[in-house]
Amino acid sequence: MNKWLTVCPTKDLPDGSCKTVDSGMKVIAVFNSGGELHAIDDFCPHMGAALSGGHVEDGMVTCPWHAWRFRLCDGAWADNPKIRIGSYAVRENHGIIEVNLPDSPSP
After folding, report:
1. Where are the domains of the chain?
2. pTM beyond 0.85
3. Which of 42, 47, 62, 96 is an S-S bond match for 27, by CB 3.0 to 4.6 Å?
């Protein structure tokens, strides 16, 4: 069964910001971009940089180390969308932001 993991109160994730949450198996970055919430794995598969420290623009986050760009909506690498990192459903529930963790880990 999927479970919802608490990230933070909604007020703690204003537009343009990012928070990370440790699921116990991986770290997930939750972004508020233009008022939309997105959650992806907090690592770049190229060299392992934390994407939560990257620049967000036009629905993408740019890796702070080598400028790889990933779509926030689905975790796809902008230069080759066949390569993806984990992407997760996010919701606001009574003033709390939550991320949905699947039963099996994402690739």
Report:
1. 3-101
2. yes
3. 42
